[in-house]
Write a structure and sequence with these properties.
The structure is a homodimer of 188-residue chains.
Chain A: H1 18-45, H2 50-61, E1 66-68, H3 69-76, H4 80-92, E2 96-100, E3 108-112, H5 114-134, H6 141-159, H7 164-167
Antiparallel strand pairs in A: 1-3, 2-3
Chain B binds a DNA duplex (30 and 30 nucleotides) through α4.
DNA sequence: TCAACCTGGATGATGTGTCAACTATTCCCG
DNA sequence: CGGGAATAGTTGACACATCATCCAGGTTGA
């Protein structure tokens, strides 16, 4: 059970415990299927992808419906090149529009267009229904709580200390050390 | 990140409860960061990607380290074109090799090469360490149990009934196939 | 036996994510 | 003021996933 497949572990590699093994496998499979399903549902029921949706949500969340590009990147935890490429594609499809930023000549705003607004308004209800049907209808209140707790713990681990080093590229407002610190996160 | 509250919901859409909302946001963020981190760690510490790793694990799990292409697709829950493209890239890099299948002229076997073997042997320990450090070191035994339970429930929902319709493309046989305990390390 | 169909798998187009390099502006400090 | 560093954002190359389509080899049945 303990990974007899890799007998070469002369080194004291601490493999996962059997229960951890099972939990991990279950999680990985679930997460993969769930992502795939949500993506498929979204692009079947509407004209946008999950990524588009995430961007549009951020825009509708903003009073002005206009947001600086890097701010978008930070709130989505995306890399700046990713947001840049993605916005270019969304702009080509008319979902958003760029506007120059007068107060800072380097930057630009992203603005929600009417098409973008109607796209997300069309997509959101079905998405919420799907999430509820696939996830929350399966879980007790305690399990929902546990899911949040677990997710927060892992997320915290991921975004604090050495682990945050790479993320720090776009997470600049985080005062954490940008120490190179590779070997990354394999515990101290 | 997704599905904030949309004030325009006149329609009878059942949005998520506030606690569900919070759990969902926490999960989505965690899952995104975790995937990103695991991928980065894997390609930093070794010559392979998470996808390569998943393929190689399947191959090492097989007695004679040769497997039919579509069988691979099914066990990974990948589409056949995805596995085909991916194998082409892996073959180009020397990680696997194809062999003709004498019993069925259409098909072919995928075989683990020496390079492939050493690649996974090099990658596996660090990956296991990372998963342990990022996930399981943060969780109590009860939480590990809850994670498995939750994942299994959602996964079951995803792979039974109408939901399975699309997946069924490659999942033709066997509706449930819940983790057969072949102990394949921390595969993806 | 032969035509219709099914299956295993490859291919090309397109959309997406990542990394590294780049440009242009602004900031900081002497 | 002026010059280097930081910042905002783009671009190009490449890896990857998905979809539709194609094709060769098997299977079925009249």
């Amino acid at each position: 059970m303990m990974c007899q497949l890799f007998p070469y572990a002369e080194q004291v590699t601490r493999w996962l415990e059997p229960e951890q093994q099972r939990a991990w496998r279950a999680y990985v499979r679930m997460q993969g299927e769930l992502n795939a399903h949500l993506s498929r549902q979204m692009s079947a029921d509407s004209e946008i992808s999950m990524a588009d949706f995430a961007v549009l949500v951020q825009l509708t969340d903003t009073p002005d419906e206009r947001v600086r590009v890097l701010e978008l990147a930070r709130s989505l935890h995306w890399e700046k090149s990713r947001i840049s490429h993605h916005l270019a594609r969304m702009e080509k499809r008319g979902l958003v529009r760029r506007e120059i930023c007068r107060s800072d000549g380097r930057g630009s705003f992203v603005v929600l267009t009417e098409l973008g607004r109607s796209a997300i308004e069309e997509a959101a209800p079905a998405h919420a229904e799907t999430v509820r049907a696939l996830v929350f209808d399966q879980l007790s209140d305690d399990e929902v709580d546990a899911l949040r707790e677990i997710s927060e713990k892992v997320f915290t681990r991921l975004t604090t200390g050495e682990c945050a080093s790479v993320i720090a590229r776009c997470d600049a407002d985080d005062p954490m050390e940008v120490v190179s610190e590779e070997g990354g996160c394999t515990e101290a």
